Amino acid sequence: MVKHSKVTVTLTVNGVQRTAEVEPRTLLVHFLRDELGLTGTHIGCDTSQCGACTVLLNGDAVKSCTVLAVQAYGAEVTTVEGLGTLEALHPVQAGFWEKHGLQCGFCTPGVMMAAVALLKQNPNPTEEEIREGLEGVLCRCTGYQNIVRAVQYAAQQLASEGEPGEQVAATGGGA
Ligand code: FES
Ligand code: FES
């Protein structure tokens, strides 16, 4: 069997610098889950279609199963664990709570990260723009209507609180 040499990868995850030695082929999603223990980022497919693994990479939503950990060297990554706290939910998390945006919850972390990126780009999206913005994340429970309502709720919250990127920037994920 061929032994792979390891490389050192350092990134800032949720505002904290993290380093691990991994094989060069290690995907970012495995780096986050297996090396850092951040299992909120889910793996839902092996075809890069489901979007359950979506995180913010330097502020942009990316499917972390499509990025090598070494490609993210030096980057700022925000996972769902970096969004908010139980005491102070991020507006997107509050939206899912208030509007019953989750069913089984498997897709929820990816949807929330995509929603954060969408609202950063477009703080006042129409329903159609929300559906377009989230189309890279699949919900197997197919409860899209309440997900849209959750994002609309978050947009209103963010509009009343200020700049949409602020909450994420505070945890180190903003561009
Ligand atoms: S795990 Fe399905 S797109 Fe990444
Ligand atoms: S809530 Fe079950 S997959 Fe989306």
Task: Explain what this protein looks like in three dimensions.
With 175 residues, this protein is of the alpha+beta class. The protein is 34% helix and 14% strand. The protein has a five-stranded mixed β-sheet with strand order 2-1-5-3-4, with helices on both faces. A hairpin with a 2-residue loop joins strand 3 and strand 4. It is globular, with a radius of gyration of 16 Å. The structure holds FE2/S2 (inorganic) cluster (2 copies). One FE2/S2 (inorganic) cluster binds at residues 102-108, 139-141, 143.
Kindly report how far apart the N and C termini lie. Answer: 42 Å
What overall geometry do the principal axes of the alpha carbons give?
Answer: globular
For the report, how would you describe the main beta sheet? 5 strands, mixed
The helix fraction, in percent, is 25-40%
- Largest beta sheet: strand ordering: 2-1-5-3-4
List the helices and strands in order. Answer: EEHEEEHHHHH
Q: Tell how many strands the DSSP assignment holds.
A: 5
Average residue-wise pLDDT: 92
Ions, cofactors and other ligands present here are:
FE2/S2 (inorganic) cluster
Low-pLDDT segments: 169-175
Please report the number of helical segments.
Answer: 6
Strand percentage: 5-15%
Instruction: Specify Rg, calculated over alpha carbons.
Output: 16 Å
Q: Structural class, from helix and strand content?
A: alpha+beta
